[in-house]
Amino acid sequence: MPGKMIKLTCPVCGEPYEKNAYEHKRNVSLGRTSVCSRTCHASYMNQTETKLKQNREMLAERNAHQYREDNPNWKGGISAKSHPLKPLPEPKPDEPEDEKKGG
Ligand SMILES: [Zn+2]
Fold first, then answer.
1. Pairing of strands 16-20, 5-9
2. What is the pTM of this model?
3. How remote is the CA of residue 57 from the centroid of ligand 1, in Å?
4. What is the pLDDT along the chain (103 residues), one digit of tens a residue?
């Protein structure tokens, strides 16, 4: 099998390297990233895994806040103690004092 080499740049170390075109094609079709060496592949996987995990945690935390009190649009789903549209019960404005006196 004639192996045609193509020039690529390693996304991990940034070094230019050559890779078998067929292999690279296969990697791309599998959604993999070609890197220059096993070492770089390992650190690439590490990086992405760490980054993905960080992103996931960050997003999870952000979402958790967003769907609660921190969200200004939150209308109070479970404990609707104070609905913004519902007027608060006001104390009676002016009791007729005459009736009190007459007691
Ligand atoms: Zn590399």
1. antiparallel
2. 0.47
3. 28
4. 567 999 999 999 999 999 999 999 999 999 988 999 999 999 988 888 888 888 899 999 888 877 656 666 766 666 545 556 666 677 777 766 666 665 5
Distance 35 CA to ligand 1 centre (A): 6
CA of 11 from ligand 1 middle (Å) equals 7
> What tokens does 50 get?
């760490």
55 alpha carbon to ligand 1 midpoint, in Å?
24
For 35-48, b where at least 16 C-beta lie within 10 A, e where not — what string? bbeeebbeebeeee
Helix (H) or strand (E) holding 60: helix 38-66
Query: Distance from the CA of 72 to the center of ligand 1, in angstroms?
Result: 46
Encoding tokens for residue 82?
């104070």
d(CA 8, CA 4): 13
For residue 77, the CA-to-ligand 1 centroid distance in Å is: 51
